[in-house]
């Protein structure tokens, strides 16, 4: 909800502060959250490998609640931009940590599909923010509704913060950092919740791990996969955000009323769910690598189908296919990436790849702005080429992690 928030709030913000169509401040608002996420992914991902997953897990969500609510009452455009950057800085740290923790807790046989299920809540958030924006647009004028939207989007994070207090730190991460007592206590808590008894024997010490430095991501076996994963994340993010961050404004510029814009966006968000479900099935049947590559290739094709669509029905159909394929690719990528890094640098690696996505997120609104200026073919061609290149990079990684224990997958 927070990541996509400004693309829904922008029409109201523009009305409140008198922004012209395509104004630089509008682009800055769209990129502000992504710029914050770029810095946050780099910082929080590294810190989580140093001080623990749970600490960062709690701090980042608490900050996102604080800055989210403050943004709703921002008295000026400049302060709103700063608060959106700070909100992005906070939530930029949740993504590397969430998926690393999920990967480290869930058994090998279920890990892939559960990581996709976790990512599928992105679609739930998209549906919620689109539905909320639509409903608020019928209750308040645009210059007021955006404040209610920004404030309401911070509420789920508050619920999430309360839920996270019940989650222990990752035993795998605690062991790698030398905290055997903490790992034992975390496992005892997991056993107690599941009605089991933890065996009375010492935990097996992990194999020697690379030092928690950024340089470790570009040494040995990790160097190739870090670069290729970074390019994959960049390409997918550029295509996804370039299209969908500007889509509401693009539809509005084509003469569609605001209510219809939000209803159309809501329909496209619902189309994401089949993409996730198919990805959850395929990552365990066809494997992570093939599933990711296939969804990226279909996404590139979907861009050209959208470009060539000549009727409203064809445009909607191509858009729904594109939405499902892009989110299926995201699901597979979030399942694949944490498995390719060893525990000592897992959130650092997730932070790096997430940062590459945020670089693309910062660039994509400028490319997407070409949609509003009438250069539709050029903008969509850029997105199609980057998605095809991302598919090639995903396949070139050359490692399949399906069915492997994390210690094996991260060192393969």
TrEMBL record:
The keyword Nucleus is assigned to this record: no
Chain ranges of the Major facilitator superfamily (MFS) profile domain: 1-402
PROSITE patterns in the cross-refs: MFS (PS50850), SUGAR_TRANSPORT_1 (PS00216)
Location within or outside the cell: Membrane
Record key words, sorted: Membrane, Transmembrane, Transmembrane helix, Transport
Regions crossing the membrane: 25-48, 55-75, 81-102, 114-136, 148-167, 227-248, 260-283, 290-307, 313-336, 378-397
Gene3D superfamilies the record matches: MFS general substrate transporter like domains (1.20.1250.20)
GO molecular function ontology, one term from the record: transmembrane transporter activity
GO cellular component, one term: membrane
Main location: membrane
PANTHER family: SYNAPTIC VESICLE GLYCOPROTEIN 2
UniProt name for this protein: MFS transporter
Organism of origin: Deinococcus cavernae
């Amino acid at each position: 909800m927070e990541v996509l928030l400004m693309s829904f709030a922008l029409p109201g913000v523009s009305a409140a502060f008198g922004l012209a169509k395509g104004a630089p401040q509008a682009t800055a608002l769209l990129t502000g959250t992504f710029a914050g996420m770029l810095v946050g992914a780099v910082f929080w991902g590294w810190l989580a490998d140093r001080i623990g997953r749970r600490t960062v897990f709690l701090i980042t969500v608490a900050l996102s609640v604080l800055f989210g609510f403050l943004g709703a009452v921002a008295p000026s455009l400049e302060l709103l931009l700063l608060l959106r950057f700070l909100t992005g800085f906070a939530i930029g740290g949740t993504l590397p940590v969430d998926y690393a923790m999920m990967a480290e807790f869930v058994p090998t046989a279920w890990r892939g599909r559960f990581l996709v299920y976790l990512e599928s809540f992105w679609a739930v958030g998209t549906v919620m923010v689109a539905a909320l924006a639509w409903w608020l647009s019928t209750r308040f004028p645009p210059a007021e509704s955006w404040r209610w939207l920004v404030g309401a989007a911070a509420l789920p994070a508050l619920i999430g913060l309360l839920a996270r207090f019940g989650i222990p730190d990752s035993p795998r991460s605690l062991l790698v950092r030398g905290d055997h007592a903490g790992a034992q206590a975390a496992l005892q808590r997991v056993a107690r919740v599941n009605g089991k008894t933890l065996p009375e024997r010492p935990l097996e010490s992990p194999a020697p791990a690379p030092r928690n430095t950024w340089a470790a991501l570009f040494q040995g076996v990790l160097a190739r996969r870090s670069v290729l994963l970074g390019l994959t994340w960049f390409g997918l993010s550029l295509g996804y955000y370039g299209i969908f961050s500007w889509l509401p404004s693009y539809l509005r510029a084509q003469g569609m009323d605001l209510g219809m814009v939000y209803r159309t966006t809501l329909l496209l968000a619902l189309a994401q769910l089949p993409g996730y479900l198919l990805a959850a099935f395929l990552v365990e049947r066809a494997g992570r690598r093939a599933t990711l590559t296939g969804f990226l290739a279909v996404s590139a094709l979907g861009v050209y189908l959208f470009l060539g669509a000549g009727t409203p029905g064809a445009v909607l159909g191509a858009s729904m296919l594109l939405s499902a394929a892009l989110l299926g690719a995201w699901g597979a990528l979030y399942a694949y990436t944490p498995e390719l890094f060893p525990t000592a640098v897992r959130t650092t690696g997730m932070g790096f790849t997430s940062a590459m996505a945020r670089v693309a997120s910062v660039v994509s609104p400028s490319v997407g702005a070409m949609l509003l200026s009438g250069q539709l073919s050029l903008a969509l061609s850029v997105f199609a080429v980057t998605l095809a290149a991302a598919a090639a990079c995903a396949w070139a990684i050359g490692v399949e992690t399906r069915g492997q224990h994390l210690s094996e997958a991260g060192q393969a």
